[in-house]
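Continuing the series of single-chain predictions for the mutant panel. This is the parent chain; the variants come on the following pages.
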Amino acid sequence: MHIKFKRLNHIQICIPLNKEEEARGFYCKILGLQEIEKPEYLKKNGGFWLEIADIELHIGAEEQINNSKRHPAFEVENMEQIKSALVKQGIKIKEDKDLPNFKRFSFYDPFDNRIELLEAK
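Parent structure:
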């Protein structure tokens, strides 16, 4: 079988149950992401959806959150300015070693989800 993948549609990360307003404060107010409508039949599960670049970021709510190396990575411009703004907001930053063609660092949401940002060298 040959699967013809077209594009990445969405990424889902999780937050603890009943923490949607705190998560909206981080993702919408601090990061400036736009919330998009979640289908009515899924709203009962908690969480919310956001638009980021040309994909969706789904914020799911679940009882147990575990620490993991899983993370999304987004290519950006003006990475140093972004990092500086996050630090001023008190956001936890992790310095990552550069990749051959990219500078990079990671930051963490209030629920310890890691998000990596990369910028072409």
